[in-house]
Amino acid sequence: xTDKQNLAEQILAGNRRALARAITLVESSRPDHRxxxxxxxxxxxxxGQEAIRVGLSGTPGVGKxxxxxxxxxxxxxxxxxxxxxxxxxxxxxSGGSILGDKTRMERLSRDPGAFIRPSPSQSHLGGVTxxxxxxxxxxxxxxxxxxxxxxxGVGQSETVVAEMSDLFLLLLAPAGGDELQGVKRGIMEIADxxxxxxxxxxxxxTATRTCADYAGALRLLRKRAQDPDGxxxxxxxxxLEDTGLSTVWEEMxxxxxxxxxxxxxxxxxxxxxxxxxxxxxxxxLLARLRREPVKGAMTTLAxxxxxxxxxxxxAADELLGHYLQLDRDSAGGS
Length: 334
Hints:
The chain is an alpha/beta fold.
């Protein structure tokens, strides 16, 4: 039995250590590792099970980690297996992780029914690593029932995570009207559930008012064809007191079931698969443009663009022409 076959069998058996090794492999940018990862993913494709993929975002300090831990513990108590793919903030210069989610989710990290994988964002769009999509496939092959994908909650991360999840949860803190005005319409339109966290203690009444404000804002938005009546909706929760979590899970199941029966679930998955195929093609072409001798031409043209000697569009056309000529020459010589 080859190492690849052995690793695949361990993943299918639910071995968490093997799953961690496989995710490390798919996150690697080394060409030989990328080839091994692609082969492993093809071996696993069609195996395992179809998990519910849940994207979750929110502003820093809203209590995402506390919510994920409490929510995950509730799910594992019901016999479900939960995987958390949490993307850490990274240094813009070094790309190194500055915060580990395992230190913020101590109880969940010790739960045998849970798997937590923090990954540095490495400056990829929205803090969602390029390989998170592949990590989701690995977690499904390992038999997890629910996969929670936490983003850093900045920039366009919400749009990116929406392209790899079945449900999108937006976590917000109790706030007033000014804060409501600051929430972008775009994220309101892609959120399936808006959860007002910290609905406990002195903030409970504020959370209730905030929830009503967001519920009103949601009613003003155009109803989405992929939603039943009442969705999207706003709800209050307290991760600290574990209140509202079971209701959130019931609503998530209701929405998922409705979308499955209406055919929206499968169509969404198919559209996402196409999206990530096209993204892989773009990444692959960019990677080839960074290799020598094309890289040298790119560096030279970039310097000319910076100096104002040539326009960006003309420089791009010249580089692509250079690349295509090299590709033709390579094909002719082989």
